[in-house]
Amino acid sequence: MMQLYSGTTCPFSHRCRFVLYEKGMDFQVIDVDTYNKPEDIAVMNPYNRLPVLVERDLILYESNIINEYIDERFPHPQLMPSDPVMRARARLALFNMEVELFSQIETLETGKEKQVERAKTQVHDQLVQLAPIFTKTKYMLGDDFSMLDIAIAPLLWRLDRYDIKLGKPSAPLMKYAERIFSRPAFIEALTPSEKVMRK
Fold it and tell me: Per-residue pLDDT tens for 110-166?
């Protein structure tokens, strides 16, 4: 059985929990206190970060790598596009998301006041740019729910927590977020600490 060492408030762990529940397979989530990690996390992941996936003698870290492995290992429902061109585009979009949005998470959670304000502005501006996409499409890649939607969902869930306020022009993005938040797998994947993050 797969074991996921998962931070109870970690957005990257949240992504992996979401994928596991979407797949509806047997797995065990091992809750880890992000601020007081057991020593074996550093043994499994040299960067001492969560999440970490363990399956027999395989140890994986970094949420996008873990999620692609799960998607290939359990192909239904498929979350990465089957077409190589679309899959490459999806991977590029995931990479851009890491650079433009998720690189700000650590600052938002532990940075000093000025750094936090800069990070909030960066995330706000990137999300505002994304919003118009959802006037035309249901999900990031059109009508099909995909790994891109899973990747961004934990950040959208935490906007209140990070005190990032999106105005009226972002209404399509927030409607899109509600579509994801209403998915049974998303709801199941939430830890008690995450459930209280939205007002």
Answer: 999 999 999 999 999 999 999 999 999 999 999 999 999 999 999 999 999 999 999
Query: What is the mean predicted confidence (pLDDT) over 15-33?
Result: 95
Does residue 188 form part of some domain? no
How far out from the chain centre does Cα 141 lie?
16
Q: Are residues 70 and 94 in the same domain?
A: no
Cβ-proximal residues to 8 (8 Å cutoff; 6+ apart), any chain: 31, 32, 33, 34, 191, 192, 193, 194
CA distances (Å), 22 to each of 78, 105, 152, in order?
10, 24, 15
Assess whether 72 and 89 both reside in one domain. Answer: no
Q: Are residues 89 and 72 in the same domain?
A: no
Quick check: is 125 in a domain? yes
